[in-house]
Amino acid sequence: MNLDLSWILLGLPAAFILGWLASRLDLRQLRIENRRNPKAYFRGLNFLLNEQQDQAIDAFIEAVQHDPDTSELHFALGNLFRRRGEYERAVRVHEHLLSRGDLSEADRQRAQHALALDFLKAGLLDRAEDALLKLEGTPFQAQARLARLANYERSRDWPQAAAIARQLESAETGSFSSRLAHYLCEQAAADLARGEITQAQQALLQALATAPTAPRARIELARLQMQQGHAAQACATLEDALAGCPPATPLIAAPLAQAALACGRAAPVLSQLKACYEQTPQLDVLEAIVTLEAAVGSATSTRDWYVRHLEREPSLVAAAKWIAGEKLEHEQFHPQVQRALDQAVKPLTRYRCAACGFEAKQHFWQCPGCQTWDSYPARRVEEL
């Protein structure tokens, strides 16, 4: 069969022209889609910067529909859903990412971490625990362990919390000795509630060995010793706490004065508290001094201590206590004036969390508002 070269010569240019036209059409379509995707993406970013989350979500959904393989858009969309509190939609986005076979290992770990955060925010702690466990051995391991630690603290599972804290400390994430001591004190409180005094005492001694400079273990141990009728031991424990942790002096002063009165050591403890007060005048230390002065029958009037405090520190609390025993010119109005002063000083006698500002009548070792440990200064609001 003879080939006609003229047909070949005509066919080659035609094939080339058709191929070129086809490629141009494909490139044009690709350019149109590429233009549309960044436009939707940047529109969503602009909405996000302007805090218009509803419009941002719509724009990102449009971008994802045009290019469903773009993982970054999925991450942005999932994070937006989580911030808006739409946890179910955030979970679906991140689970869809995890179901993709073409996802890189780094993006898979990132999606697993995002999914765990979705469950945490939604309060699904069991599912969050499972998701966080899958992050062991990944770059998100430390963050996952910290999240698990917060979970165990929230559920008051102190043995599990202690185990995670030790893992974090061994991985050089930070020092957790103070927090471990708090866990042991919490276990001791639970033991006491069940009447297991021996176990509680062992837990407190272990807490003391774990964090020797932390005041809580000694304060709790002294309280237990007082309950058992061992006032001398309680006084010695609190004197050690006073020497070992000066910032906690306001928390130690009142129980120390009580223990000193019970075991006949009022005079030496009074001298210690006066020395502490001279260095740093504090309301709770002042109250303990006034209590002990009244007990030992000192020549100095207890009310004179409030005047001394006012000379060093402007204090409405001390002024109200001094006026309570003062004879006024119009004594018939004294009760009304005193009630007004007592009402005015109430907010000043509270404790305030340094992390979130939550105020409370009593001192907390863990803030009820933000769950931060040791965020309450030992001093009252008026002294901050």
Fold and architecture overview:
This protein has 384 residues and is mostly helical. The chain has a domain of 35 residues. It is built from 18 helices and two strands. The protein has a two-stranded antiparallel sheet with strand order 1-2. A hairpin with a 6-residue loop joins strand 1 and strand 2. Helix 6 runs antiparallel to helix 7, helix 9 runs antiparallel to helix 10 and helix 12 runs antiparallel to helix 13. It is elongated. About 2% of the residues have low confidence.
Summary keywords:
two-stranded antiparallel ribbon; mainly alpha; 384 residues; 71% helix; elongated; 18 helices; single chain
Distance between the termini: 106 Å
The main sheet comes to: 2 strands, antiparallel
Radius of gyration, in Å, reads 34 Å
Stretches with pLDDT under 50, minimum 5 residues: 29-37
Please report which band the strand proportion falls in: under 5%, 5-15%, 15-25%, 25-35%, 35-45% or over 45%: under 5%
Measured as a percent range, the helix fraction is: over 70%
Number of helical runs? Answer: 18
Look at the helices and sheets and give the structural class.
Answer: mainly alpha
Q: How is the largest sheet built, in terms of strand order? A: 1-2
Overall pLDDT: 81
Order of helices and strands: HHHHHHHHHHHHHHHHHHEE
Describe the global form. Answer: elongated
Number of strands: 2
